[in-house]
Amino acid sequence: MKWNEICVNTTRDAVESLSYKLHEIGASGVSIEDPLDMVIDRDSLYGEIYELNPDDYPTEGVNIKAYFPEDYNTADVIEQLNHYLRQIAEYLDPGTGIITSKEMDETDWATAWKAYYKPVKVSNTITIVPSWETYVPSSEDERILELDPGMAFGTGTHPTTMLCIQMLEKYMQSNQTVIDVGCGSGVLSIASILLGADSVHALDLDDVAVKSTELNVALNGMEDKIHAEQGNLLEKTDQQVDIIVSNILAEIIIQFTTDAWNNLKQGGLFITSGIISSKQAMVVDALTKDGFTILEVNELEDWVSICARKEHQEK
Fold this sequence. Notes:
This protein is an alpha/beta fold. It has 2 domains: 2-114, Alpha-Beta Plaits; 117-310, Vaccinia Virus protein VP39 (Rossmann fold, 3-Layer(aba) Sandwich). It has helices spanning 12-25, 74-88, 107-110, 159-171, 187-194, 207-219, 250-253, 257-262, 280-289; strands at residues 2-10, 29-33, 62-69, 99-105, 120-121, 126-130, 143-147, 177-181, 199-204, 226-230, 241-247, 264-276, 292-300, 303-310. The strands form 3 sheets. A 7-stranded mixed beta sheet has the order 10-9-8-11-12-14-13, sandwiched between helices. Strands 2-3-1-4 form a 4-stranded antiparallel beta sheet. It has a 3-stranded mixed beta sheet with strand order 5-6-7, covered by helices on one side. Strand 8 (177-181), helix 5 and strand 9 form a beta-alpha-beta unit. Helix 1 packs across helix 2 (74-88) and helix 4 packs parallel to helix 5 (187-194). The N and C termini lie far apart (54 Å).
């Protein structure tokens, strides 16, 4: 099978927004090539993530590459992207916005990337291991999270995912209940169980994400603890849980802070990431207006995670 690769050159600020849009348009997979990954030293904290080739990275900005089936209307995709780039320019720097396309064989992108994805320790106790790698834990308290990202979702090693897992590791208590909003490949749902949660309700608007989560849940033998289903944020969700975790765009987070409040038990925690540093104040403001108390804000590279607690009685 052949695929159409659409490449957009943009800025780090616009990566999350454009990635979300590409999935919305119908991309079967998205990859990000950021030259910053070539120079950031992660060894001192959590180990090596990739074996990177400098030739794969742009000299300016960040490349987002999306993959569409060969029968997709490439011209229509490019037109939608150009329109979206003009829209987000009102609040984000889209960079050059240069869009290119080319045809590729499936094997060129669906499997070749696996050579660069290696086990990585993302927190004090959790190591994400690709399903095709053999890995021996270095200590008794190391928890292994097996992951097959598939074609459409990340490897679990993006700074926003790492920030969420580190927050979960700090605040999770045994036998707590969790909702994972925008579950993607299921990495935060699985991490929650590894860290002591009793059950997780995983939600994503994209049915491909739900299937990816179910695959990885089965890979980790957690079918009895994690239930994944299609859902738009917290709409039609009325359960009360101890923790809601969401690694999603800042612009999306602020749309469901009230629903998050309503779906948390008294004293429950809302852990969020996917927030570029420049959007931190916007998210904090939305959370505090809905009655949350900000417990902690952490940063990694240009990204922020926030842990907020439901302090007051129902409004």
